[in-house]
Amino acid sequence: MGKLTKIWAADVEITNLPTINGGTLKAGLGVTTVGDAFLTLVNPSAITFPRIDAANTVTARSAANFKADLSLENVTNESKATMFTNPSFTGTLYMPSGGVIDWDAGDVTLTHSANTLTVGGGDLAMGANNITGTGSLGATGAGKFTKGWFTDIETTNTPTVNGVQLNKDAPNYTIERIVNTYYANPSPGSGLTAYSGAAAATVINQAITALTAGGNVYFKQDTYVLDDSIGDGGRSNINLIFERGAILYCNDSLNAPAIYLNGVSHWKIEGVEINGNRN
After folding, report:
1. How many CB atoms lie within 10 A of CB 128?
2. Interatomic CA distance for residues 147 and 96, integer angstroms
3. What are the boundaries of each domain within the chain?
4. Which of 197, 246, 198 is closest to 222 using CA atoms?
5. Burial (Cβ within 10 Å: 0-12, 13-18, ≥19) of residue 246
């Protein structure tokens, strides 16, 4: 039978799919299994997302199911308005070097740089929780903390103050007055000599001179009348520590400084109150 070469028509209506070049229309057009599945996919009644499986099947999935298919089920909210209001993630959150987490348009930021996370714009409030670690808190130079407020500080090693390590085992004397006699009592086991006498400066200077390697001299609450200066005794690394209410009173006969230091270093005088006609 002879074939028509071409047909020109405004409309063509046929009952069965035509055969093209010996095969079906789909085969002639090169329609794949997946394409065939799309052609026969049932019309959805709501917003859906197509899923193509390895077996070349195509299914229409709801937003919730599609999210589960993509392993996004740990994001707790589906709507765009709440997606990042209360999310929940598992696994690792990766950010590149220099990444920034920004709260409230720069009110507080957390910025990464090499080996460092920097909090900007606000404070890091720990509440009743702890900061733990085996490294340092703060650093030398510009990295120092300006000031700290603590209820208790407990250290294993003796602290260093202004470049000088305090000696927790340093010998010490306690100065006190009983009636009209001044006493310098050494710490137990120090091997130091106890001193006493009627002149406060004499007893205090004896104690200072006895601290050949430095140490602490504690003054109990009282008034210590000075007829002579408290001298350094040629000793460095001396701490004079006065209880609240401990007063050095310069008598009229004292025509010299209450405390006189010459050629020594690393002295610390804490809590002293000096009174009298000459101070």
Report:
1. 4
2. 34
3. 19-91, 169-276
4. 246
5. buried
Q: How many CB atoms lie within 10 A of CB 100?
A: 12
Token pair in block for residue 23:
């095969």
Q: What is the pTM for the complete model shown?
A: 0.43
Look up tokens 């859906």; give the residue. 48
* Gap between the terminal Cα atoms of the chain: 136
Q: How far apart are CA 47 and CA 177, in angstroms?
A: 92
Asked whether 175 and 187 are in contact (CB, 8 A), the reply is: no
Cα torsion angle, 188, 194, 196, 202, sign: negative
CA distance 87 to 235: 66
DSSP labels for 106-155? TTEEEEEETTEEEEESS----TT-----SS-SS-SGGG--S----S----
Residues in contact with 25: Cβ distance below 8 Å, sequence separation at least 6, in sequence order? 17, 18, 19
pLDDT at position 19 = 66
Radius of gyration of the chain measured on its C-alpha atoms: 44
Q: Given phi > 0 = left and psi -120 to 50 = alpha, else beta, which region is 202? A: alpha
Q: What confidence tens digit (pLDDT) does each residue in 73-124 have?
A: 554 444 555 555 666 667 777 888 999 999 888 899 999 999 899 999 988 8
As given in the structure block, the two tokens for residue 52 are 């193509």
Half-sphere exposure in the Cβ direction for 41 (13 Å, CA): 21
3-state secondary structure at position 195: strand
Instruction: Answer whether 49's CB lies under 8 Å from 66's CB.
Output: yes
Q: Three-state DSSP class for 210?
A: helix
